[in-house]
Amino acid sequence: MAKKGDDPSARERILLAAERLFAELGFDATPTSRIAEVAGVPKGLVHYYFRRKRDLLTALVERLPDERIEPAAVVVPGDIAESLRRLVAELDRRLSASQVLSHLLWREADTHRAVRDALRSRYDVLVNQVRTVIIAAAGAGSLALADVDSAAALLALAVSYRHSVARHAEDTPDGPDEMERELTFIADALTARAAAPRESVPSSGLD
Amino acid sequence: MAKKGDDPSARERILLAAERLFAELGFDATPTSRIAEVAGVPKGLVHYYFRRKRDLLTALVERLPDERIEPAAVVVPGDIAESLRRLVAELDRRLSASQVLSHLLWREADTHRAVRDALRSRYDVLVNQVRTVIIAAAGAGSLALADVDSAAALLALAVSYRHSVARHAEDTPDGPDEMERELTFIADALTARAAAPRESVPSSGLD
Amino acid sequence: MAKKGDDPSARERILLAAERLFAELGFDATPTSRIAEVAGVPKGLVHYYFRRKRDLLTALVERLPDERIEPAAVVVPGDIAESLRRLVAELDRRLSASQVLSHLLWREADTHRAVRDALRSRYDVLVNQVRTVIIAAAGAGSLALADVDSAAALLALAVSYRHSVARHAEDTPDGPDEMERELTFIADALTARAAAPRESVPSSGLD
Amino acid sequence: MAKKGDDPSARERILLAAERLFAELGFDATPTSRIAEVAGVPKGLVHYYFRRKRDLLTALVERLPDERIEPAAVVVPGDIAESLRRLVAELDRRLSASQVLSHLLWREADTHRAVRDALRSRYDVLVNQVRTVIIAAAGAGSLALADVDSAAALLALAVSYRHSVARHAEDTPDGPDEMERELTFIADALTARAAAPRESVPSSGLD
DNA sequence: AATGAATGAGACTTCATTCAT
DNA sequence: AATGAATGAAGTCTCATTCAT
Questions:
Q1: Together in a domain, B45 and B91
Q2: CA to C1' distance (Å), from B127 to E9
Q3: Which domain does A45 fall in, by range?
Q4: Where in the chain is the DNA-binding region found (chains A, B, C, D) (predicted)?
Q5: How many domains is chain B built from?
Q6: pLDDT tens, B78-114?
Q7: Residues D105, D15: one domain?
Q8: C195: chain D residues, CB-CB within 8 Å
Q9: Smallest CA–C1' separation from B54: which nucleotide?
Q10: Which residue has the least CA–C1' distance to nucleotide F8?
Q11: pLDDT tens by residue, C95-146
Q12: B57 plus B75 within the same structural domain
């Protein structure tokens, strides 16, 4: 039972084990003793590094990878659909690395405020990312902001839904196709308006 | 201490207490003793009616209200936006009655298969409802099915999201407005296409 | 669910179920609810007939079949071995009918005095039976009483052992043969002494 | 409340308490809380060392003292009775140390396979011990093996019976005398055959 | 006579957390 | 710094028994 100087440090192994187990079993249903076991460390060490169990959750949230994507990397000027497609592909790539964590967040969101805040902030980042890409692809000023907001919110919802709640493969056999269809629907709607802007959109007063 | 002929029966009170507490604290974090306390029954009675704790969850899922809505009640022929608006309003009205339950479903979905199935099936019903209303409002045949599917899925997502995960009031101050904006976005997109159908939509090969 | 006037009365079915379950699972490990279930009667009825659980045990003990055997039926004058062999065969026949009960008795003997007394008395009856048969077969006066007592005790032990503790078939594959061998050993010893009585046996002063 | 460096370690005290209580009340009727109480340790510690209650039983069985006795220590060449008398005395001395445990074994034998196996194996050891002593006392070859087997089985039964099931003092007031009488009966039978071997013993094919 | 809802004590067990070493 | 023994609160669940009907 090697303890300390291993490849991933003991502390790191504890976090990895906790991430996996929390996502798999839920926070409450995961005993710290099980975490120690999976991490291959003595039970005492878990509480040595993270005094209370909830400190593990906090630490996990603070380690969340940054999902900000450089718009330039995915934008195809003039082609909103393709731009969004590339954005989603890139998000997929990155999110899959921390998929279990995303999932965990949704589950524990309302019992633990720290988690709720982290989740909310991630969602906001996501919406903004989509907005930025849409605007960059469509050309600044060519679209009503309200439309962009709606489109961004809807796509963010679809993406985030796929990466969190609906992660059970057997439940969403048509996952990718559905996403593609919805994405296209949104992009087409935006493209149509860029060509012939409508003023019938009720002004929501919200930026 | 007569327990039977009371306002709601003892069994019913237990279910109500469980529903509330599960949604509030989560399934794992709710002690059966607390359920008994809130229901005003002795601890033993909880297990008399529901031998294991998880049986409470199952019973709760089986009590889910039927959310099917008669399309005729909300459809305004020719006006997709208004039709959807009325549908959403009606759904809101009905769902709010079991909001905590909806919320509970999302939380426990992946630890408990029975819950997952119930959730999935509710979502499917919702999507179909939206589809039906869209078609009835637009007039049969005037829209590409793929568009209708996409629109239905996106709106269902938004509705269901609002009623379940994002139920924390403080987190979604702009809830209703956002929903209105997204609804309008979707309706407009569909209306535009009904007027000038596009064939650029990639055929997804589905349905 | 027929309740009352059935072939075996409800009360009888309860006793039968209890006998079976007590022997199978042990007294403490058998819930009265299970007894009701196996007996096919409502739970309340068990306590209606037998207020406390232990009353079931008492009733069972009082139902013990009488194992007294008419010596004349098995004795072959002059042949102790054959006489004992027939006695054992007859005991086997009778005891097998209440084997589970015998077994139960041994298990619960020291937690329940009523059972202990019943058990002790059955054992005494058994020893006496063997004594009587030996004396009848050997001819009165031809054997030292002390020898007869020893032989009777040893054989009773072997019989009772076989019918109670060692009832697990897989544990005693050689059961019958062993019994036959021991029986012959004892009979031969007695026969030898009847022929040439020894006085070296220490007088025990008991009966 | 230092628990460790005490006279017997906490773990040991738990085992001692369990042994006593199981034998006294029976396994099922002994609450672990009572064990903790008698052992003078907090309830949690019992389950720290023995996760499930039945692990206590297993541990107890594994601690059974070895009852093998060096034949040379008790054999009096040429005197089977005296040899057996000394063997029994020695067995008594050793078994009394774990009498409650022996008793416990018989009680729980058929609900717990581990116990059953331990019991069976102890019995086999006992029978062999008696056999060895008989042969050593009588002189090799002077007795038919079948006779030796029968005698050994009968004596082992008597010894084991006295040390387990029939341990209630009031139930066997004549215990020692009876044992002496039976022992003598068996020894005499063997001695008689050594002098004038009989071939009438049915060959059982076993041994 | 018969029933099954109701009761509450208490059993086993799990677990986060503390602490001496 | 690290460990694993120790602690006790609390949780789920079982069950004999009572009782109103």
A1: no
A2: 51
A3: 10-62
A4: 31-50
A5: 2
A6: 999 999 999 999 988 877 666 667 667 766 766 666 6
A7: no
A8: none
A9: F12
A10: D44
A11: 766 666 666 766 676 666 666 677 777 778 889 999 999 999 998 888 999 9
A12: no
